[in-house]
Amino acid sequence: MALTPHMRTVVIKRPIHLITGIFRIGQYIAPMILIIADYFAVIFAELIAWYVRGVLLPQYFPMLSIFTISNTYVYFIFPFTFFLFLAYEGMYSKRLAFWKCVEIIFKICTYVSILAIAVMYFTGRAENISRTFIGVMWILSFIYLIYTRYIAKRMLVAAGLWQKPVVIVGAGKTAEFLAKNFEDEPTLGYKIVGLVEDHYAERPLMHRYQHIGVFSDVEQAIINSEVQDVIIATPGLEREEMLDLVYRIQPYVKNLTIVPDLFGVPLSNMEVETFFNEKMIMLRVRNNLSLLRNRIIKRMFDIIAGGCIVSLLFPILLVLYLIVKYDSQGPVLHNANRLGKKGKEFLCYKFRTMHADADNMLEEYFQHNPEAKEEWDKFAKLRNGDPRVTKVGKWIRRYSLDELPQIVNVLKGDMSLVGPRPYLPREKIKMGYLSNVILETVPGITGLWQVSGRNDIEFEGRLQLDSWYVRNWSVWQDMVLLAKTVGVVLGRKGAY
Domain check: are 93 and 190 in the same one? Predict the structure, then answer.
């Protein structure tokens, strides 16, 4: 017998009540556990920093002065200062994505370090300041706070104490996108306990979550669930229908979230303004890369980080040069034209991974394998074996080592460490209107497309990712993408 919406509600009533009951307990326990985790993370960072400066370094540098620090600073002042900043940023109550948490913790550790120096200076204790101690504490507190909070949240989620039960109104593509993001970010703790949808038989999301009602009885569905957080994920509704849902749901919940139809719009630096009567809002969107100071910051970041990378990777570059040279005939570097800023072409450097007569080999391969031609047209790659690639080429492509010479392009200013994909000149027509956005800046060695699937993403998908990156650029985003790239390369995801 098929379940009616009412019968479905009865079936899941008890589990939802259990989840909401545990969540109410977790509202009080979870912040305390996070505070304790933060306290020990800071203490541990301070003690290790003191050991490095006060014990370890003097053994190798006897000229260093004796360094001591009061227990009052170690066990009270520093931890309490961290706690104030963390609490101010809502780190004990807000549900933030992992990399957003990392960004906030990075800023907090920086602020506390600067504040510590300033306070000790103005209180006449500047002679007791150890720059080594402050620097090591800054690094270690940043690392320990990230990992202790992550582990603590995972444990709290497993115990149900950090899980926040939510009901989603709608079960279409937007709701599917929300559900995927909740799954990809387990430390957010969102637990979808039910869906409110009229066309529930047509929605794939219904196979994974319970249907607890339709739009006409949304109030009763919310009451039965006892959930205090509801998300309206139906951006396609008419204005009157959306307002009707809002006014009907709001009296029964503490938090009501509306997902607007703003997909593709730059959101990372969006500002919201309201008028006095609150009947209208304005959303201000900034083009970050159009500002001169941001372009200067990005260029300085490339020069400093690129210089460090070159010095570290020089032995690897030399070994790869010799391997490619003696593996097959042809030049070591493959210098190809790519589209740069404003569509200006430049020579992009890569280690050669193909045979010298690669173009003829490709045409001949297409004649005998027409299905490969279709794959080429779709992905601009041959993912199931490319006859042009050399033996060494297959290996260095697997770990993206062929792209290391592009560091030279970065230092020259033709490329950036992070940016859109370097497109071929013949691909400009296929890029369409998005070429105006993507070519606002120089391409990157890595980028959003690299950490989101690389060659598993179709051409149109790469364009969307690259245009999103340009519209939402920030220094922190570049740092996050560089960190993610390491994992993607080591995992060989999407490498062909």
Answer: no
Does residue 464 belong to any structural domain of this protein? Answer: yes
Residues 452 and 336 in one domain: yes
- Both 338 and 423 in a single domain? yes
pLDDT at 274 over 50: yes
Residues 172 and 142 reside in one and the same domain: no
Tens of pLDDT, residue by residue over 380-423, are 666 666 777 888 888 888 888 888 999 999 999 999 999 999 99
Using the predicted structure, report yes or no on whether residue 3 has a pLDDT greater than 50. Answer: no
Same structural domain, 82 and 208: no
Q: In the beta sheet, which residues pair with residue 169? A: 196, 232
Model pLDDT for residues 158-203, shown as the tens digit of each residue:
888 888 889 999 988 889 989 998 988 989 989 898 999 988 778 8
Count of domains observed in the chain? 3
DSSP secondary structure string, 72-110?
A: HIIIIIHHHHHHHHHHHTTTTT----HHHHHHHHHHHHH
Beta bridge partners of 211: 195
Q: pLDDT digit string (tens) for 94-106? A: 889 898 999 999 9
| Residue/partner pairs of 394-398 with CB below 8 Å, 24 or more apart | 394/353, 396/320, 396/323, 396/324, 396/351, 396/353, 397/353, 397/495, 397/496, 398/492, 398/495
Query: Do the Cβ atoms of 158 and 43 come closer than 8 Å?
Result: no
Q: What is the pTM of this model?
A: 0.75
Question: Residues 471, 486: one domain?
Answer: yes
How high is the pLDDT of residue 14? Answer: 43
∠ CA 186-192-197, rounded to 5°: 145
Residue whose tokens read 């196979």: 207
Cα dihedral 476, 477, 480, 485 sign: negative
Q: Pick from 159, 176, 204: which residue ends a domain?
A: 159
What's residue 117's pLDDT?
Answer: 79
Tell me, what's the pLDDT at 48? 95
- Provide the domain limits for residue 197: 163-261
* Domain-located, residue 61: yes
Q: CATH code at 201?
A: 3.40.50.720
* Max intra-chain CA distance, the chain: 84
Whether the CA torsion 175, 178, 184, 185 is positive or negative: it is negative
How far is it, in rounded angstroms, from Cα 338 to Cα 398?
22
Question: Which residues face 389 on adjacent strands?
Answer: 354
User: For 252, which DSSP code?
Assistant: G
Closest CA to 473 of 481, 461, 464: 481
358-368 and 370-379 helices cross at what angle (nearest 10)? 120
